[in-house]
Specification:
The chain is an alpha/beta fold and 243 residues long. The protein has five helices and seven strands, in the order αβαββαβαβββα.
């Protein structure tokens, strides 16, 4: 009788542990499944549930961007076989929902400082397969300084490095030979943060806002931004999904 009771108790514990493990594996699979798709793959190979959702991060408590155009998502869907949700979702950097989005955008203007939980989440997010596109809105110098300071706090052993023009990012969908600036001479630069041979974060100190397509009366009044930002963003997004 004791053996039967002991076996039954063991079975209950084993089943409970199996259910917990299965739930965690499923959650991880949902978070990472979009990263395994190929942009130019035949449509028949793309599953119906591979819609790639994109987060517009709420950070430093309440800061977020309302003037970063999401039009590049529709352009990506038109130019590739990637099924992308055409609107950003507002997602708190400090919350668990962040890990449901394989691609996220972080932008804004002026100074900011992240909360400790936001730093913890961002580090975990990028380490576990998430991708971040960050840009100083309208080339805000204050935002640029704040972002670089936060990257040093979160990743003291890693550095943002300039991405060379022969990198595949510049030819993923559109052939980009120059990152054009609207209000100044010279070219814009993309910087990347790499982990285990994969770029997990791309940053531009010049605005990738594409404010002309952002709606809501958005403009870079007095500021600068990248003229061909929509094409640049399409390439970055496609790279994030296919690598």
């Amino acid at each position: 009788m004791r053996n039967r009771r002991g076996n039954w108790q063991y079975l209950v514990v084993a089943l409970a542990m199996s259910a917990l493990l299965s739930a965690e594996v499923s959650a991880q699979a949902r978070r990472g499944k979009a990263l395994a798709r190929t942009a130019r793959a035949p449509a028949s190979l793309l599953e119906q549930d591979t819609l790639v959702e994109c987060a517009n991060l709420i950070y430093a408590g309440t800061k977020t961007s309302t003037c970063f155009s999401d039009k590049f998502l529709a352009t990506t869907q038109r130019e590739t076989n990637i099924e992308a949700q055409r609107r950003f979702e507002q997602v708190k950097l400090s919350g668990d929902d962040l890990f449901n989005y394989p691609f996220s955008v972080m932008t804004g203007e002026g100074q900011f400082r992240l909360m400790e939980q936001e730093r913890i989440n961002l580090k975990s997010y990028l380490t576990r397969g998430g991708f971040l596109l960050a840009s100083a809105g309208c080339s805000s110098q204050e935002w640029d300084q704040s972002f670089r300071a936060e990257m040093k706090r979160i990743f003291p052993d890693l550095k943002l490095v300039k991405i060379p023009k022969d990198h595949k990012i510049f030819g993923t969908v559109f052939d980009i030979t120059q990152i054009k600036l609207k209000k100044s001479s010279g070219e814009g630069v993309l910087e990347g943060l790499e982990m285990d041979g994969r770029i997990v974060l791309i940053y531009s100190s010049e605005g990738l806002n594409d404010t002309a397509n952002a709606g809501g009366g958005c403009c870079c009044c007095g500021g600068n931004e990248i003229k061909n930002s929509q094409e640049v963003n399409v390439n970055i997004f496609t790279y994030s999904v296919t690598h």
